[in-house]
Write a structure and sequence with these properties.
heterodimer; A: 113 residues; mainly beta; four-stranded antiparallel sheet; globular; B: four-stranded antiparallel sheet; 12 strands
Amino acid sequence: NAGVTQTPKFQVLKTGQSMTLQCAQDMNHEYMSWYRQDPGMGLRLIHYSVGAGITDQGEVPNGYNVSRSTTEDFPLRLLSAAPSQTSVYFCASSSGTPLYEQYFGPGTRLTVT
Amino acid sequence: AQKVTQAQTEISVVEKEDVTLDCVYETRDTTYYLFWYKQPPSGELVFLIRRNSFDEQNEISGRYSWNFQKSTSSFNFTITASQVVDSAVYFCALSLLSYNNNDMRFGAGTRLTVKP
């Protein structure tokens, strides 16, 4: 099993550009989530999904969109990148809700100039 | 709203010392779960423990132990006889479950450096 994979590992964007961060898991987990990690702020939940076709907002959803068309994939879209979105992004999955252990991907380091 | 506070931003110890990482949480819910995750220098987060709000028993796993006290809303983590490999950022997290709230809140993390 590859676990949770994320692509790309690094990305530089210019303000206003759009892009999609990819996340995939091969553990047949229903729950998937996206976090951003900023210095001194820990991880903050952006969006999450409790199953295919179901998504909901987390703590900091503005500027991001998600969709969940399959159990395996949970892409995160930045519609118009802003410098405030410079961060490290982590995708995670869990067999249940967050009440269970979450498995994290290796992260994507995004810089918006 | 729920909140997790890890007041210790950075801790530095010498190998074989014991060290305690503090975690204080806030929530109005009576049913919740608390977690600790480790983020080593490689960057990936690793699950350490989960504890539900109805189980206040302390837990020990090798050199790691956790002390959960509802009276003080704390869930502290102790590493006994620390080793260089314990150097990492440690996150405490709180998860609630209600009909329309299914998210998790992390503390800011404590960076532990264990020197040889």
